[in-house]
Amino acid sequence: MTPAVRRRPLPGIPSAPEAPLPDGxxxxxxxxxxxxxxxxxxxxxxxxxxxxLRCLLGAGLLSLCLQxxxxxxxxxxxxxxxxxxxxxxxxxxxxxGAAIANGRLILNGSxxxxxxxxxxxxxxxxxxxxxxxxxxxxxxxxGVISLQTSDGETFDAIVYAERQARKWVAGSDFxxxxxxxxxxxxxxxxxxxxxxxxxxxxxxIALYRNGEPYGAPYAPASPVMTYPAGFAxxxxxxxxxxxxxxxxxxxxxxxxxxxxxxxxxxxxxxxxVAERSLRFxxxxxxxxxxxxxxxxLRALAVGDPTPTYQWWKNNAPLTGATDPxxxxxxxxxxxAGSYHVVATSGSQSATSATARxxxxxxxxxxxxCHWRLNETTGLIAADATPNRLDGTLLNFWDETFQWTxxxxxxxxxxxxxxxxxxxxPLFNLDSFTAALWLRVDELGAQMSPISxxxxxxxxxxxxxxxxxxxxxxxxxxATGFVADVQSSVNVEPGTFHHVVVTYHHADSRPDLxxxxxxxxxxxxRGPDSGPPGYDASPLTFGRRLGACTYPEQPPYVVDExxxxxxxxxxxxxxYLFDRPGDTLPADPLLPPAITRQPEGASLVIGGxxxxxxEAAGTxxxxxxxxxxxxxxxxxxxxxxxxxxxxxxxxxxxxxxVTNALGTTTSAAVSLRVFESGSGLIARWTFDTDxxxxxxxxxxxxxxxxxxxxxxxxxxxxxSFLRTDPLPVDLSEKTLAAWVVVNPLSQAGxxxxxxxSGDGETFDAIVxxxxxxxxxxxxxxxxxxxxxxxxAPETVxxxxxxxxxxxxxxxxxxxxxxxxPYGAPYxxxSPLVTYTAGEGHVLIxxxxxxNLVPARLFRGEVDDASLYxxxxxxxxxxxxxxxxxxxxxxxxxGNSLTLSWSAELTGFTLEQTDTLPxxxxxxxxEVVNNQVTVNLGTGHAYxxxxxxx
Length: 948
What we know:
Helix content is 5%, strand content 40%.
């Protein structure tokens, strides 16, 4: 039985009589109403025809299209230009403050809504859909899209947060067809989401959000309503009624809405979302090129609206990189890394596949010989270089059996007593590199894929595969055994591996690479006084000779064997691994390119700093440093040292590098000069209370926190301290505190934390969270956290000074007792800026706004401080009361005298050839804190290290 309704005039429809309908009668639309068009009106026919053509054309032939397609509605409002129904039936009319902007209906939550012309057909089964953005999430009761009778008393609607905060519901008159849903609260504020509400003939009602079920379907006690043609309409932005007001009004934006005169299936609803879904049609591809070359990464996405782009490098966004293409006009080593792009379309975002950019240094070809081993018959292994150092196959069964598929083309199979010998005085090399592809088919016996025989006492060097699959590379010098290295990983039987061995004569250092990665490196036992005069002793593949002959070997295959007369660097080894069968190309003529950028610094007045740049390109290279864009007189080296820094030394520093082919300029980095101790914005001494003795961040004791003898005592159960908000924005910073840990077995407690107002984002001094009994820089989801290579705490109850420094270069450094605690590192996530008035400090809890026992610290804190800049190592040492040694030096020609105060004891002078250093070695012959060393070519770096 159709319920009696009170009718009112609807837009575009003459007023109907104000009288109840007889039982069983249906309202008849006036003869001039749009309902006369019926369900097969031209608008719907045209839309269906377009969809069918798209389906057929997409298939490429006239055949049945079986792909799920988004169905056509009875009415749709897209707001592309106005409020018209694009299906041509139920045009909309803006009411109150409703407006259309940028293809969306804007609703103010007060008096703005849209009402449509009358319903053209009776509707019982139905589906309501809309793309909607809620703003704010805290509103409640507003209707997004409603189908109601003309008097506004009977309705079905998509309603926001009427009965459950931040949840969608099927709204209805007196909740007759409404039930609460077991579904997540809405979290997308001001972001488009797709909503669909389905009423089926079986009386079931189902909600969908972004194409997925939102709660479970249900069947209400009240039957599904039939809305009569001519006496019902759609509302957008108001739950129901004939005039605005109350909690019925929705605030936000509607991008598109539609009414269907049937119940859509779950597949059809998913198709509605999919036709506007964002997806990549072209993904970026890996790039490998030399410094100075031009390359482009490209990605392409489709979506509605047109996608925008943001490129990321090593998981950090690239400023200004917002086009589908990312072009490198002249590659530098700094461009190497992993890249992806995030595309955004409306509320959707998609992330592309990751592409690797590999950048090689300019290299010089020093290839002595290259055995490709591509023969198919015969007992000669041809050298592909002009040197023509062909190898002779010995002890093989016949001329064909040993030639087998290799890594590139053919390879050479070796087993038993078979071997290849090559004789040439060109093999008498001081420093060298040997490279080959190797496939071991069986383990269990010693193998020797390549070696160089010595006139006596086995070979001068050799690569071995041990029975376990471990690689071993060793070297004999003129005076005997020099060095050996073993791989940290084993070769896998049945798999081709790229193996490279290098030997650096000057420091008797062998290196071992596996599949492009350095797996072992060591300084030799030397010094190696020189090659032992090999004469015509052979280079051998497949077997050691002389006194060190092995028993018969299991089968294995070698391929693409190369010998270079110099040590290849890591970039060149990677090049050979990435290009099986290639050799290193000749040195190209290249313009200058920055391969290592200078780094900014912060100093106290009187401090010193050295800016360094590394550049590649055809020699000679010329350097000119600038300050604030002005050239500095005499600053024409790759390094620029500033001593006794003063405030007027602060500024932006860069270097211009020039050669005959062009000019390039480094990144500009800042030098900041401070007075010692400046930047302190808060300090808690706990002498009498928890007040901030230098600022406004006064503390409040929580739980069982107490003050005893000038210390904050924390029980690890419910005690911590919370401060008033930050007085300034805070990004670069230093956290420091005196701490007593008790017991050492606790894990995860925060000592000193700066956090956002909601406690979700934070940086903190944390004890024992990821490594037992060790300190770390804690952060939200460990975004700025790394484990440290430092000794664990072993003395329970000791009073320690702990500090963490976050500088403008995203470097994070930990200190214990004024000395570095582990190595500084660059955070994978950018430093966080904590907002004045919102961020605050916690002492004793890692983060949060409510008590979480697992985050609590147990012990004592005595004097904590917060700085709005990165303190220098010397300043940290001063805070901790540590001794700060000063290394003095004086140069006389090629002699350098280094010394430090005789009063300082317990320090060791160490040196290295490169920074960052792989190894620091003690300087010998130091007497009374002084030593004189002879300078050679290249660089030498010295440091004083306090002996534990």
